[in-house]
User: Fold this.
Amino acid sequence: MAEYDRLLSPKAHDVIRDLAHLAGDLRVELCPGGRSNLTYRIEDTNSHSVILRRPPQGMVLPTAHDMAREFRFLSALSPVGFPVPSPIALCEDLSILGAPFYLMDEAKGLILRDQKAAKDLSVETRSKIGSNLITTLAQLHSYDPSKLGLTGGADPFEYLARQLDRWLGQIATVNTFSTALIETVTRVGNALRNRMPTTDKIGVVHGDYRLDNVVVSADGDVVAVLDWEIASVGDPLADIGMLGVYWMNADDNRSHAINGTTKLEGFASREELYDLYGSLRHIDPAQILYYQRFGSWKLACILIGVVERYRKGASGGDTSSIDDYPALIDELLEAADPH
Assistant:
């Protein structure tokens, strides 16, 4: 991989050592789980480790791989005590890796990507994780973006409309899927637009808030929220809706789950999470249903993009199978369709 070769170059190592105050020879390894931006763990001879993030080869949505934006959100949230990895440095010199990148501290803990990762956790700890995820999300949404220096971009009250336009535009460029599927995505997107609620409150939106984008401790505490690549300022209910798409209840019958971890005994139900969020943010949990449908549609669009990149040979470094994705895309579109 060309990106990996550049990361092994003496020039890159010199720059990384200087920016992150590392010493001696560096060991570089690609972190698992990423289908978009590439994440590397870098360790020096003193066993001091940092994380490097950079865009993938063959970027589909440039705004979704904006290293400066990711670094900006981390830099805004870390000083106010929100659990994120501490940012170290941003490098926009393309001569180093061929793309911008940034460095951050490594957050130590567990990432629950599947049931195997959670099997040794107690029932009590699993229950605690669900409530802590919601408490952390409510904390994020309580911040005034202007006080964090995160305003000045696109109109946050148009966040949902902007998301719909962006993904519909992206879908229009896809050419490895059937015309019928693209027509379905477009129809459901337009139906969601016609039912789009008015945004009453704005806040910091993570954009992909889910269990496997969070580092937790063995006791179930939230150590750090990861992957801020599509963070924005907009309608915060989009985050809880997306979490609900990924969060599987024990009795859910979706045949193609991305992450079935939360079906294990002890994890709260989706509805319990919605109720807790509603009580913390003083909203009616029934409001979240639209955002869950929107999240299902958006995730279908994201997965279409993932499959498209695989088919065109620019997978972002993840070698996991995507065989189930077409069926999952169909299920997500059905869940998103307001009929």
About this structure: Residues 110-336 form a domain with the Aminoglycoside 3'-phosphotransferase; Chain: A, domain 2 fold (CATH 3.90.1200.10).
